[in-house]
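Worked example 2:
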Amino acid sequence: MAARHLRSTRTTVRLTIAMLASAAVLAVVLVVPWGGSEPEAAPDPTMSQPPEPPTPPPAPARRDVYTCPAYSGIDRDNPLANLYKDTYTWGTTPPTKVGDGNGDINWRLNPDKNPSWYMWLHSLRWLGQGIAAGGRGDRAALQRVSTIARDWVKDNPYSWKSDVGAYESTMHRTNVLICLRQAVLSGLHVGQLPLTYAWLDKALLDHAWFLQKNYSGDWNHGTDESLALFGIGCTLLRPDLKKIASDRLTSAIKTSIDTQGSTNEQSTGYAQFNYALWGRAIDVLRKCGADPGTTITARRRELAKWLALATNSLGNLPQLGDSEVIKTVPVPGTVLEYAGTLGARGIRPTQRIGIFNAGYIFGRTGWGETRPFTQESTYSIRFGPSQKLHGHNDHTSVTYTSRGRDILIDGGHAGYKVDDWRFWAKSQFAHNEMVVQSATGHPETKLVRSTIKPTSEFYELHDSPGPGIDRTRDVLVLKDPDLMVVLDRGTSASEQDYSALWHLPADQKVVVSGNDRAVATKPGDTVKTTLLQVPYQQEATPIEVTSGQQDPIQGWHYRTINDKKAAPVVKFNRPGQEAKILSVIAPTRANAAVSYTTSWQGSEMLLNLKVDGAVTTIAVSTDGTLQRIK
């Protein structure tokens, strides 16, 4: 479908790798658009995640041991019986016969033109059940997976970089080949690789050469590449390969996770993935006689705090960047245990608000001290460096939970297929921010000031989303009554269409009353959300609600890349060279009354709110300051 406001000259095509796991088992799903040059990874919330054990204290290093990292869950849908038929399954595509029944695979096959399907075909991870059976002594299974793996090697000679599917799955295929090698030794009860499998070591050396020459950089993709390269060095007793890989890891950790615990991925889902990934790095290095040092452990500790603060009152991470809806993993012995179990276990964190230089604010009314954990209100606000890697054009956007449910959501993660849906999900139009129709930039956004008080927090953010356009957002978050007040101000040298967008969950029905009020609720629910458009120095224009629109795309929510639902978006609009939009987001009981009045005290407007019987007054100053005075 067309999306007129999202037309782009972008030519960069991206690759995805969806991986979420414990330190021992990484659950991964990979998506790869065609013709790409920059790989991407995306966590998959559908994979089961046993809690990661706490990092053990240093123990005497074991030499030359590399643990097979399993098969990212892809093997679950590819039973041994299907491998004998050369039948492969990934995602929502039905099981597909990809070979002649004798292990001769058509590696160029892609019936649905699905880059993810194609990528995982080339990863060989779908052979996992057969490799496991072969390692237990099933000679027939070992023969079948060996035949398929060798067929890949024969049909995809070095260098395979011209084929993005073969190229971008190299690190994952490397691990599968190592797992296969281990299965040969254990399944055949031999100590050395038989000569009939000499091709396997040759293939591993080719993969090592490729990984040396094609490093993706200091982010999760490069980390996975380094671990795979280290695995070859460990397996084939090549200290030179181990050193290259360990040196890369030593350097990369300082970029991947900063001293405050933020990752460079600009994604909450990737933050959790990186926590597991770097835990595995520690384990891999130690088991093969390398010293992981202290930096990885220290940075992971800060990342655990970051993830705990990011966890909302529903036990999920907010969907920021390329992130699906995922639960926080309750890692025992860390602050994540309390956050991930909704306060059932672990030590309660003491920090209520987190402001991170990488561009994140995470706040909450509490950790369940005086009300149930799930009844607290939590929020996120984005600012910081311009968009990169897995980031979206979401600066100044907020998410909000309260009263045991999502109140304001992000548009979500549409996957990595380069189409109008992905452009929309990454664009300004999929987030809770004031958008400017003509703005196409991905600006750096500054947190100008902040004030933290016991029952309110105030933040001011500023950026320039397009030439000659200035945008300022002031946010005041209250406790008792729990609500959010947002003042958006925009100025431009020419006429613009400004809109403050408020994305609501897919189960909500919205009723508009006049130009100042929209009420959203799930039919039969005990909670509603009142959205007020309060006139401030400008007349309020009619409120719009959009849901399930396809041209241009608007009003959708992706919980996962395969789960898209129509979801209402409430729009407060202003045309002209200047915009001043004052919004109130008030979650309450379904039968609660919400009302307001305004008055002026000099140049300051007083917004008097009565929310379910609770009265509060907000002072709105001409410089944008929002202050709770009652």
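Residues 1-62 have pLDDT under 50 and may be disordered. DSSP finds 13 helices and 30 strands in the chain.
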